[in-house]
Automatic annotation (TrEMBL):
Its EC number is 2.7.4.3. ATP binds at residues 11-16, 128, 137-138, 201. GO terms for molecular function: AMP kinase activity; ATP binding; zinc ion binding. Zn(2+) binds at residues 131, 134, 151, 154. NCBIfam families: adk, PRK00279.1-2, PRK00279.1-3. It is found in: Cytoplasm. Keywords: ATP-binding, Cytoplasm, Kinase, Metal-binding, Nucleotide biosynthesis, Nucleotide-binding, Transferase, Zinc. One of its GO terms (biological process) is AMP salvage. Its main location: cytoplasm. This is Adenylate kinase. Residues 31-60 are annotated as: NMP. Residues 128-164 form the Adenylate kinase active site lid domain. PROSITE patterns: ADENYLATE_KINASE (PS00113).
Length: 218
C-alpha cells in the first residue's frame, strides 16, 4: 500500500502527476474540494457540520476538516492506498493527519514536493485564457486552439483573461501559497518522508522521478 501526499505551488503540475500515479498504482485520489462536496451532498454527520460553517461564510475549522479526511480514509475503496490533495495545508493539520493515520493504521509512505521556479509558475499560470462565448480554457504554452484565434469548441473569436490569471495577481497567489508550503516541507523533511523533485522537467520526466520513489515503496 502506498499512501502519498503531493506538495507543490499552483501550476507545479500536481494534477498531471496525480493522474499518472493513479493510472499506474491505482491509488485513490482524495481532493479536499471533492471530499467536502461529497460529504455535504450525502449529508453525513461531518458533512452537515462543515456545511453549517460554509453557509455562514466562515472557514471550516481544522478539526472538522480532519474529521472529514478520517471519514474519507475509512472508506473501503482505499485498497491500494491514497494520494491526498489539498490536505494538510498547515503543520497543525499535518499533526492531526499523523493521529488519523495512526488510528486507521494507514501511515504516510512518502511526501513528494514538485519544485518549480517562481518565474516559470507565473509564465504557466498567466498563459491561461478563455473563450468569451463558451468558456473553453486554453493556455498559450501548453494548450493552444487548433486554429489560432478560433475556439475549438464553439468557433468563437473572442478571448479574455480572468483577473486572477494576470501575472501580478498570480505572483501574489504564489507568495501566499509558498508561505504555507515551506513549513510543511520542513515538517516532513524532519520525519524523513520528503522527496523533492524538479517540476521544471516534462511531465514524462517528472513522473519517471516519482515512479523511482514509489517503486521502492511498492
Amino acid at each position: 500500500m502506498i499512501n502519498l501526499i503531493l506538495l507543490g505551488l499552483p501550476g507545479a503540475g500536481k494534477g498531471t502527476a496525480s493522474e499518472k500515479i493513479v493510472d499506474k498504482y491505482h491509488l485513490t485520489h482524495i481532493s479536499t474540494g471533492d471530499m467536502f462536496r461529497e460529504a455535504i451532498n450525502n449529508e453525513t454527520k461531518v458533512g452537515l457540520e462543515a456545511k453549517s460553517y460554509i453557509d455562514k461564510g466562515n472557514l471550516v475549522p481544522d478539526e472538522v476538516t480532519a474529521k472529514l479526511v478520517e471519514e474519507r480514509l475509512s472508506q473501503p475503496d482505499i485498497k491500494e492506498g491514497y494520494i491526498l490533495d489539498g490536505f494538510p495545508r498547515t503543520t497543525y493539520q499535518a499533526e492531526l493527519l499523523v493521529d488519523i493515520t495512526k488510528r486507521l493504521n494507514k501511515p504516510l509512505s512518502s511526501v513528494i514536493a514538485l519544485e518549480v521556479d517562481e518565474s516559470t509558475l507565473v509564465d504557466r499560470l498567466s498563459a491561461r485564457y478563455m473563450c468569451k462565448n463558451c468558456g473553453a480554457t486554453y493556455n498559450r504554452i501548453s494548450k493552444k486552439p487548433k486554429v489560432e484565434g478560433t475556439c475549438d469548441r464553439c468557433g468563437g473569436h473572442d478571448f479574455y483573461q480572468r483577473e486572477d490569471d494576470k501575472p501580478e495577481v498570480v505572483k501574489n497567489r504564489l507568495e501566499v501559497n509558498e508561505k504555507m508550503n515551506a513549513p510543511l516541507k520542513d515538517f516532513y523533511k524532519e520525519r524523513g518522508l520528503l522527496t523533492v523533485i524538479n517540476g521544471e522537467q516534462t511531465p514524462e520526466e517528472v513522473f519517471k522521478d516519482i515512479d523511482a520513489v514509489l517503486s521502492k515503496i511498492k
